[in-house]
Amino acid sequence: MPELTIRKLHPAIGAEVTGINLAEPVDDATTEALSQALSEHLALVFPNQDLTPDQYLSAATAFGPVMRQHYSQNHMPGYSNIGLVLHKNGQKVAENWHTDHTNHEKPPLATMLYGVEIPSAGGGTSIASMRAAYDALSENERERLCAMKSVNTLDIDRAGTRAEDEEKYGKPVIHPMVRTHPVHGTRAVFFHITKVHYIEGMSPDFSRAYMEDLLERMIRPEIIYHHQWKKGDVLIFDDRATLHRAHGDYDRSESRVLWRILVEGDKPRLV
Fold first, then answer.
1. 111 or 92: whose pLDDT is higher?
2. How many CB atoms lie within 10 A of CB 24?
3. How far is CA 220 from the centre of its chain?
4. What is the band of 227 on the pLDDT scale with cuts at 50, 70, 90?
5. What is the edge-to-edge ordering of all strands in the sheet holding 173-176?
6. Going along 13-101, which residue ranges are E strands?
7. b/e string for 44-74 if b means 16 or more Cβ within 10 A?
8. What is the C-alpha separation between 18 and 7, in angstroms, rounded?
9. What mean pLDDT is predicted for residues 128-153?
10. Are 265 and 107 in contact (CB under 8 A)?
11. HSE, side-chain direction, 13 A CA sphere, residue 204
């Protein structure tokens, strides 16, 4: 087992993991240690990695099986389980707070990003602890949220979506607005504002307004880790208890290229 060193990066969320080369296979003890670290810290940074696509896919399996991503137009050529996060020619950066692929019956356990091309300034990724956000709500609001369920679909009016992805991933999926973490046992607020078509019992417009207000009140600096990318960084965050967003504050003549892998999750439950 490698001599892992885990250093907290923020009081509420985030830790740096050193002493491991993700290009090499990991043993069962290391896999368990990484799983526990992810569920505790919710975001892990592995600096100074040098990975081929095959090595990157192998590294991701330390956290679980890899799942196929929708929006197949963004898949890496020859690697359908790696998505290319790149924003050239004015493509919009995902700056809304969200968690990935909530239109799936089993949304991902985690999102893994590898910094391949990094702009000289800006272009970071922020991750918020929705475990801490839930804990900070009033008891009445926690009870109200726990009774809510969201109806999720593919993002409405997203440009470039292929017909096969619409057919396979566009059907409504219902999730609780609060879910219990299957490893940590704690609760977290759980939704993707642009994939929630509506909250059961609310109109789409009122649902959107409610979620916008909720995000405005919940997302505060004390629950956010902001990652400023360096080439070779691997960042993984626990989609079961976080929201994340990209920042478009960089020179768009420069390249920002991340390789994205999603790790298979389970069906969200509130217990």
1. 111
2. 10
3. 18
4. very high
5. 173-176, 149-152, 196-199
6. 15-18, 43-46, 66-67, 75-76, 79-86
7. bbbeebebebebbbbbbebbbebbebbbeee
8. 8
9. 97
10. yes
11. 8
Residue 47 φ/ψ region, left for φ over 0, alpha for ψ in the -120 to 50 degree band, beta for the rest: beta
H or E stretch including 210? helix 204-218
Tell me which of 52-66, 161-175, 210-224 is least confident.
Answer: 161-175
The total of other beta-carbon atoms located within 10 Å of residue 78's CB is: 7
8 A C-beta contact, residue 195 and residue 153 = yes
Q: Is 121 helix (H, G, I), strand (E, B) or coil?
A: coil
- Residue 26, both tokens: 């990991």
The amino acid that residue 187 corresponds to is: R
Cα 21 to Cα 42: distance, rounded to the nearest angstrom: 20
DSSP, res 201: T
- One-letter amino acid at 22 equals L
How many CA atoms within 13 Å lie on the side-chain side of 127?
Answer: 30
User: Under the phi-then-psi rule, with left for phi > 0, alpha for psi from -120 to 50, and beta for the rest, what region is 232?
Assistant: left
Of the chain, the end-to-end C-alpha distance in Å amounts to: 34
Residue 90 has pLDDT above 60, yes or no: no
Length of the chain: 271
Tell me the Ramachandran region of residue 167: left when phi exceeds 0, alpha when psi lies from -120 to 50, beta otherwise: alpha
Helix ranges (H only) for 130-203 are: 130-136, 139-146, 163-169
Cβ-contact 120, 163 below 8 angstroms: no
pTM, full prediction: 0.93
